[in-house]
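**User:** Here is a favour to ask of a fellow structure person. Please take any protein you like and set down a full record of it. No explanation is needed for now; the record alone will do.

**Assistant:**
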Amino acid sequence: MVVAGHSNKSVANIFAVGGMGFSLIAGLAYTVMARGGSMPSLAIGGLIAGAACAFIGIFVSYSLHDVPVTLLLLGTVSSAVTGAIGGLLGRMFATAPRLPSM
């Protein structure tokens, strides 16, 4: 997304939504790979996964001079929260009751 946004402004316009979407998926992926755990531990793991995902993407985008340095903090924090939400959602999906098979 960062490379595409560097050359295409319409992609750059969705950096915030797309980046937080990736962080949400990172939080969900953490929950799947953790295979259980308490709600707080899954939220913290999702938070770390989402923040790391965002920091890497924003740092590359900053290195390409596409975003200001202040976005490193703001974007990482907002994506960390989104990653934590992903971790919690992953737990809810994992513990949802299964539909009976026909």
Observations:
- Helices lie at 2-7, 9-12, 15-34, 39-63, 70-94.
